[in-house]
Amino acid sequence: QEPSSKRVKTLRKSVASIANLISPGKRHFIKRLICTLNQQNTGAAGSTPSSGSTPGKRSNSGSVTKNRRSKLWCETFDHRGVEEAELKRQETIFELYQGECDLVDDLRMAKQTYRDSMVTLKMLTEDEVTRIFGKLDCLLPLHENLLQHLEAERTSDGKCDAIGHVFLSWFPTLTPYNEYCANQADAKGTLDAVVNKEARVRDFLQRCLESPFSRKLDLWSYLDLPRTRLVKYPLLLKNVLKATPSDHPDAVQLEKALTMVNDVITRVDDLTGERQSRFVLSKLDFLDDKQKCPELEESRALICSGQLKSSRGTKLHVFLFDLVLVLARNVTRNDKSYQVYRRPIPLSHLIIEGDEGGRMSGSFRGGILSGDKAKYAFRVRSDELGLSYTLIAADEHDRKQWVNSITEATAKFQSRRGSS
């Protein structure tokens, strides 16, 4: 591990370089930022807790400049006399707790070092701040609250007897996640646009990325952490439940919490998919009205998207919605990002060739495609609309992913239509 003094000097130099981006009148802000980050770094430097600290309790000034290490419950508390099964249970609970500590630190990093700094430096408009950072202010208190309740459950010997009831009370408070996650498509698009347009923003974010406090994570990585944490709760709770005896009172509570968080995630996914679908649709540029179809406006979820090529080698960005497949090309025109390439194919009419069974016509295999192109190709067509598109993936894995996704999407559509 680096000596503390060396790390502080490196951090001071890295953050001081950010000061070059701003006018002398705002240097006091950078000095304050340097001081804050240096204090955080110093607090994380020592491996031995101060005499007044309580093992397992966190300081209010959490540090994100530290090199995070995997710390076990048995390394933090006296585990002599603890049975192996109970030790494993405490380890799973402590892992969950530590992850929550890290998330709170990261949310503070996103809020204070990135958002507040960029606002003070007037790098973003008020609208851009709202669109990029969304409900970030609402998420931080939620997770701080969870930490407080988890710490309150810890007894003097470091054990947590039960945590299921904590999550049963906490999960219903996660409604801000609906808007935060649903806003991510617009947030990412806005951030990318600002970075591409503003050299000052690019320079600021690059300097932050190269500074020790970022841990080599860019701004978007921090903004996406709440979503990744949310979808991880089922696995974390399952691990705790697996280590909990079936006759333990917490087992029932954990089961209920698992059901509850899965409902929360389903709701967030539905809203996110719908908002992402609308965002992508707003970025489509149609050459003529023939390219428009009712299924585009009725789509509620973007299943997947990515780069493919046409049989002529044209680079395409393909979007698979829950109701329609769209082929487009990257453009920059009137705030649009994609120009629709050909008529979309509704899933109600779509047929795919090139699945695992290799069901392709002879003309497809031996026509204009040959060699590697034929290996990574598949065809989508609609006999009713007289449409047929040959698409080429980058490799076999990519081809299988597309074929499987389209096959599953069409099967789900047919199932929904059959049950209605």
From TrEMBL:
Instruction: Write down the Gene3D superfamilies for this protein, in alphabetical order.
Output: Dbl homology (DH) domain, Pleckstrin-homology domain (PH domain)/Phosphotyrosine-binding domain (PTB)
Q: Does the keyword Kinase apply?
A: no
Q: Which InterPro entries match?
A: DBL_dom_sf (IPR035899), DH_dom (IPR000219), Endocytic_GEF_Adapter (IPR051480), GDS_CDC24_CS (IPR001331), PH-like_dom_sf (IPR011993), PH_domain (IPR001849), SOS1_NGEF_PH (IPR055251)
Would you tell me the protein name for this molecule?
DH domain-containing protein
Q: Where's it mainly located?
A: cytoplasm
| The entry's keywords | Cytoplasm, Guanine-nucleotide releasing factor
Q: Where is the DH domain?
A: 88-271
